[in-house]
Design goal:
Helix content: 25-40%
Structural class: alpha/beta
CATH class: Alpha Beta
CATH architecture: 3-Layer(bba) Sandwich
Bound molecules: flavin-adenine dinucleotide
Shape: globular
CATH superfamily: FAD/NAD(P)-binding domain
Number of domains: 1
Number of helices: 15
Oligomer: single chain
Number of strands: 20
């Protein structure tokens, strides 16, 4: 027997995944509430790259034009050695834009989140400083207890609460006795062998002439590497990656302080970031920045609790930053989940728990292979750019002389099969709202 309460989605977490889902449900006329532990769209100095298939979904949601208007398209990827010498140049971003009709863009993560938030018509549905503490479930729905002691009722709970997901831990605890292996998979899903010092810094006019707009610089060095790109508004987005001395497993990963970051910059920051800048310079002039360890992996075992609770985004899969696809993957997951949910609710407005769990499983069947590809390719990119093994150092040397493959082909191969929202018009077919650039 189905439940008789109107369908409502409780979203835990107002990051990229949570806000993308809120926008998607708004488009589908499905009720929702977002519960965010902290402020929405905090300014922490991180940047994010959005690729063309995310652009298509954001186009369907009505936010892509705003994003394109304020962030210039990327054109090339420059591969640079540790002395700042260019050894390979790929026009992959420009070619991907020509083939998809959508640019690939770098922007402040804060801007991306704010744009998604601003597009939500009823912002009272986004509750800041309201964390999910626990949940309980019955055949009619799910009840969430918040950090302010309130009970909130919904039909399903979507855990978009990030890499250290509270909800993933609660599911793990609930099966600790009956299925200890599954419990451990949920509690300790990721490993971490690299960390990043990241930031946003103002560019210097005298150095600007040297660093080209639209270019992403990938700097290779032994056991460290970097990504830098001049962004909009005279800002430079940058990441310095450093190999950890040991491999950590989530949740036992270090939480770094500002002085830890400063010590790492002191030791490793003499690397060229892009023409005119060392990472040390960028750290010293940062507007904002920090240091985090880079977890990676795909959660093994089901991404749902066999009931009305499902994991999305970084709660299911974590990729290193070198591939630039973690946030994009989170949006893809939202798309795959929403396609299942919308079809379910439109066919059965009061679905049973079994109907719901089946739809969660169909979402995971589509998303898991994408997550595995994203995780593996990012894992390889991180190790290649940090020249982690003798073989990778040889490949890196070889790549100065022989092109090892087409980067455009690789990114098109990844983006080609990506999903879009199948209950909304296809903007590529209808030309509904293609951005002008
Ligand atoms: C420095 C940095 C740079 C990155 N750059 C890129 C990039 O260029 N391209 C890219 O694609 N990806 C990038 N990523 C990865 C990308 O940001 C993540 O994959 C993406 O943010 C995942 O989104 P999410 O919503 O799943 O998780 P998060 O962004 O972590 O959001 C989770 C949210 O849940 C909230 N929360 C936590 N616990 C609770 C709770 N109990 N109740 C309620 N709310 C809770 C948190 O406060 C947070 O706001 C980067 C990551 C980092 C750290």
């Amino acid at each position: 027997m189905g439940n008789l309460e109107p369908f409502k989605v409780i979203i835990a977490g107002g990051g990229v995944a949570g806000l993308a889902l809120a926008n998607t449900l708004q488009k589908a006329d499905i009720d929702f509430v977002v519960l965010e532990n902290r402020d929405v769209a905090p300014k922490i100095g991180a940047s994010i790259c959005l690729i063309s298939n995310t652009g298509k979904i954001f186009d369907q949601l009505g936010v892509w034009k705003t994003i394109c208007a304020l962030n210039p398209p990327l054109t090339n990827r420059y591969h640079v050695d540790e002395r700042g010498r260019l050894f390979d140049d790929s026009p992959m971003f420009r070619e991907a834009m020509e083939q998809t009709g959508r640019p690939i863009l770098f922007m402040e993560r804060h801007f991306c989140l704010k744009t998604l938030y601003d597009n939500i018509e009823d912002q009272s549905k986004v509750r800041e400083n309201t964390g999910v503490v626990s949940f309980s479930e019955d055949e009619g729905g799910v009840t969430v207890l918040t950090s302010s002691g309130e009970n909130i009722r919904g039909s399903i709970l979507v855990a978009a609460d990030g890499v250290h997901s509270t909800i993933r831990r609660l599911i793990a605890e609930s099966v600790a006795e009956s299925d200890p292996e599954r419990s451990q998979n949920l509690i300790r899903p990721y490993t971490s062998s690299y960390r990043t010092v990241f930031g946003t810094s103002p560019s210097r006019p005298e150095a600007d002439a040297q660093a080209s707009d639209g270019v992403v610089y990938h700097v290779y060095s032994r056991n460290r590497s970097g990504i830098t790109t001049p962004g909009p508004k005279g800002l430079i987005f940058w990441f310095l990656f450093i190999k950890e001395e040991t491999t950590y497993t989530t949740p036992d990963v270090p939480r770094y302080t500002e002085s830890d970051a400063a010590a790492s910059v002191e030791k490793y920051g003499d690397l060229t970031a892009c023409p005119g800048y060392l990472f040390r310079d960028l750290w010293n002039t940062r507007v904002k920045g920090g240091m985090v360890t880079l977890e990676e992996g795909v959660v093994r075992g089901a991404w749902n609790n066999g009931g009305r609770v499902v994991l999305v985004g970084d709660a299911t899969c974590k990729t290193t930053i070198n591939g630039g696809i973690g946030g994009n993957l989170a949006v893809e997951g939202i798309c795959n989940l929403a396609n299942e949910l919308v079809s379910l609710v439109r066919g059965t407005p009061t679905p049973t728990t079994q109907n719901i769990t089946d739809s969660f499983e169909r979402y995971e069947q589509k998303q898991r292979p994408r997550a595995e590809i994203a995780y593996m390719s990012s894992n390889m990119a991180t190790r290649y750019e940090a020249m982690d093994t003798p073989w990778l150092r040889f490949l890196r040397w070889l790549s100065s002389w022989i092109r090892l493959g087409s980067e455009t082909k690789a990114i098109m191969g990844y983006m080609g099969p990506a999903p879009f929202l199948n209950f909304l018009p296809d903007p590529d077919v209808d030309g509904a709202s293609l951005p002008s650039n």
